[in-house]
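Project channel, design review

CF: Before we commit to the Halomonas organivorans constructs, I'd like one complete example in the thread so the newer folks can see what an input/output pair looks like. Taking 7-methyl-GTP pyrophosphatase.
RD: sounds good, go ahead.
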Amino acid sequence: MPRLVLASSSRFRRQLLDRLEIPYAWESPDIDETPHPGESPQALVHRLSLAKAERLATDWPDHLIIGSDQVAVFEGETLGKPSDEASARHQLARFSGHRVSFLTGLALIDTRNAGHRVCHERYDVVFRRLSEAEIARYVARERPLDSAGSFRMEGLGITLFERLEGDDPNALIGLPLIRLCQLLREAGLDPLGEP
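CF: and here is what came back for 7-methyl-GTP pyrophosphatase:
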């Protein structure tokens, strides 16, 4: 049975993967996440997810390596992680009362045969109308500077929303588990299979 590696430094992705109860290793891939000029959000999350997994491929032979990346898309603009609290407050003020799409890329490399699969999941968030004071309090309390879109779904971020729309809420946290389970089964690692 292939062994599993998560190419991520995100504790939230590790917490999601823990839910599958499959033993795995993890390592930070440390890649440049700068978008290329004119790169679409879908192309960006595909490229970065695959690059994260590829970064670890030579060090982990005979493994399945998971890479994932996420961006927010608002009014045609691709938004990543805020650089500071002022940027986070600005992003959330722009989102107030609007729909924001989150694209989460997912790559799975099989180093046994150099095969790979790359896909993405879309999840939409409709923000309720937020006051300046609510935004300031949220950012001060949660400090979501390492999260695309300036919020954490797994924390107080849920207080910002009117509704959520999509197939897999785990994608919003950063790792689409439904699609990942499908890819793992196709690669011969069934989360509900024999240990």
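RD: helpful, thanks. DSSP finds six helices and seven strands in the chain.
CF: Helices lie at 11-18, 41-57, 85-95, 132-142, 169-173, 177-186.
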